[in-house]
Amino acid sequence: MLALRLLIYSFICGILLYLTIVVLPEVINLPEAISEMIFFAVIVIFFIASEEKWWVKLCTLFLGVAVFMAILILLSTLTNGDFPKKFGY
Questions:
Q1: How many CA atoms within 13 Å lie on the side-chain side of 22?
Q2: By C-alpha distance, which of 73, 66, 72 is closest to 7?
Q3: What CA–CA distance (Å, rounded) separates 50 from 74?
Q4: 82 Rama sector, left if φ>0, alpha if ψ -120 to 50, beta otherwise
Q5: Element housing 50 (H / E)
Q6: N or C: which end of the chain has fewer CB within 10 A?
Q7: pTM (two decimals)
Q8: For each of the chain's 89 residues, which pLDDT tens digit applies?
Q9: Cα–Cα–Cα angle for 72, 22, 86, nearest 5°?
Q10: How far apart are CA 43 and CA 21, in angstroms?
Q11: How far is it, in rounded angstroms, from Cα 61 to Cα 59?
């Protein structure tokens, strides 16, 4: 059960990271600093509310970054490489 919760938390963290880093600044025209603050606020509230051990939360962050990179690579591959150019990467 711990592995399943770790996987779910990682997917939530990765998708949240994608939404706040890529989608919010481009779609809503939010400054990146505000977008980062939104990400950190939601993650802090999420980690305070979850009653997992500290190492599970740390693993969740690292795996969430891996999920974020996988989403970027997947979208870049599906759009034939136009995705990074469109968003300035």
A1: 20
A2: 66
A3: 29
A4: alpha
A5: none
A6: N
A7: 0.78
A8: 888 988 999 999 999 998 888 888 888 888 888 988 998 998 899 889 888 888 888 899 899 999 999 998 888 777 665 655 555 55
A9: 75
A10: 14
A11: 5
